[in-house]
Amino acid sequence: MRAASTTAGEKVIDQLEKSLGLPFGDDERAFLAEMSEWLDEHVPSERAPRRGSAERLPWLRRWQATLAEGRYVAPAWPSQYGGRDATFLQQMIYFAELDRRRLPTIPGRIGVSLLGPTLIEHGTDEQRERYLGRLRRGDDLWCQGFSEPGAGSDLASLRTRGVIDGDNLVINGQKIWTSTAMNCDGVFALVRTDPDAHKRKGISFVLVPLDAPGVDVRPIRQISGDAEFCEVFFNDVTVPLGNVIGSLNGGWDVTRTTLANERAVLFLSRQLALSGTVDRLAGMARCVPHRAGTRADLPAVRERLAKAWIDVQLIRVNGMRNLAKVMDGATPGPEGSMSKLFGQEAEQHLHELAVDLAGPVGLLAPGSDAAIDDGRWTTGWLRTRASTIGGGTSEIQRNILAERVLGMPRDPWADEGV
Ligand SMILES: Cc1cc2nc3c(=O)[nH]c(=O)nc-3n(C[C@H](O)[C@H](O)[C@H](O)COP(=O)(O)OP(=O)(O)OC[C@H]3O[C@@H](n4cnc5c(N)ncnc54)[C@H](O)[C@@H]3O)c2cc1C
Fold first, then answer.
1. How far is the C-alpha of 56 from the C-alpha of 37, rounded, in Å?
2. What is the Cα–Cα distance from 263 to 338, expressed in whole angstroms?
3. Can you tell me the mean pLDDT for 304-312?
4. Which one, of 393, 326, 381, lies nearest residue 353 by Cα?
5. Are residues 93 and 179 in the same domain?
6. For residue 392, is it left (φ>0), alpha (ψ between -120 and 50) or beta?
7. Is the domain of 242 the same as that of 261?
8. pTM > 0.85: yes or no
9. 32, 121: one domain
10. Does a structural domain hold residue 409?
11. Which of 129, 136, 291, 368 could form a disulfide with 364 if both were Cys (CB 3.0 to 4.6 A apart)?
């Protein structure tokens, strides 16, 4: 058993070295070998229930709890909070290995990636004690309540109000595009607590239980037929002032940690997943019949696949540039915007290619017997329309690149102090 796991672990290391384009040191090899061996023993033998089925979320919560027992939910967190003090490189290995095994994303990913690091950096000991363990195990699922109908790209324009009443904060307003809110236990929200201050100075970062009286969560139906995000309304919702993370009115600085984490780790891991996608598409082209051969024989298909492969290499190289900066202790610069812009557009092109390759069968939705890969490419094609909007639109990334790389004048619409 042990010899077999070691061999499998070495194979994993070779594959990952190839896809990341980096030679691993002893620490990385040891990290991956241990993780790989642990996963061999703990990955459930039965597959995750189908998307949309009632059994899926409880299954995923159990899977998150299992990962938490092995300290594999948040390897980047300090070990005192159930992490592994993983380096940036180890985190990339971690996500690449989960993707290589096609393991489903944990349901608490938003809380683990965004709220957890925020609490570790800005929370009090009591807040860390109260929330971190539960969110790591998936006992509590959290969503991000930042955007509002009038505040997206210009987030600091948000209008949801929080008024102090004794030891409490009374919240009124509306959030929108709150991903996964319908499945969550709480929302980390930005609310305006000082309307007279400069717009970035009067905002607080507050934890709000979604079962609190006055909270109304309404799912938004998307083009794909799914409802993955919601509107969240607050009508006189009362929470203790102890739910504010960081200082009152200091929420903008707290948010910067949250957004920095969102951009760095989540994004890099998603990009790593793209190289696997090109391999899967090449495999699909070899299987889909066309005249006497398969679609892989068509020059136009081969050209598009080659372009997709080149795109992924460019994304990887740019990701490496970011990584090198972070490992040198520097703050990532506009390379992050380059990765976001190019990576998300490449993700859209990959899904367009997949749907084209599948031909008429590509139109079948999940659940149809003849659908390729259970219709994931079709829903992926629809879902990736949103990729160039969420987390900062492509236009905003282009503004950043124009200003910070090309030295163009500042966007006249952006207000000062960003
Ligand atoms: C899949 C998905 C998941 C999301 N999940 C969450 C979540 O969990 N929590 C959350 O808080 N939010 C979430 N969002 C919201 C997301 O952050 C916003 O949609 C995004 O910031 C854009 O804001 P907006 O939709 O208000 O568009 P707007 O900011 O109103 O922009 C509208 C259009 O104008 C363009 N534009 C705006 N300003 C400029 C400018 N200065 N220069 C040039 N063009 C400009 C934009 O590029 C866009 O094309 C999610 C969005 C998506 C698509």
1. 25
2. 12
3. 92
4. 381
5. no
6. left
7. no
8. yes
9. yes
10. no
11. 368
Same domain, residue pair 6 and 132? yes
Q: Which atom of ligand 1 is nearest to the CA of 181?
A: 8
| Bridge pairing between strands 142-145 and 186-192 | parallel
Domains of the chain: total: 3
- 160 and 275, same domain (yes or no): no
Residue nearest to atom 22 of ligand 1 (CA): 152
Which atom of ligand 1 lies nearest, measured to the CA of 411? 41
Is residue 5 predicted with pLDDT exceeding 60?
Answer: no
Q: Are 296 and 286 in contact (CB under 8 A)?
A: yes
Residue 179 has pLDDT above 90, yes or no: yes
Going by pLDDT thresholds of 50, 70 and 90, the confidence category of residue 264 is: low
Residue-level pLDDT at 1? 35
- The pLDDT value recorded for residue 343 is 87
Same domain, 212 and 272: no
In a domain? residue 357: yes
Q: Are residues 383 and 258 in the same domain?
A: yes
CATH of the domain at 121: 1.10.540.10
Is residue 262 flagged as an active site residue?
yes
Active-site residue identified among 262, 335, 345, 416: 262
- Nearest C-alpha to atom 35 of ligand 1 is from which residue? 395
Would you say residue 2 has pLDDT above 70? no
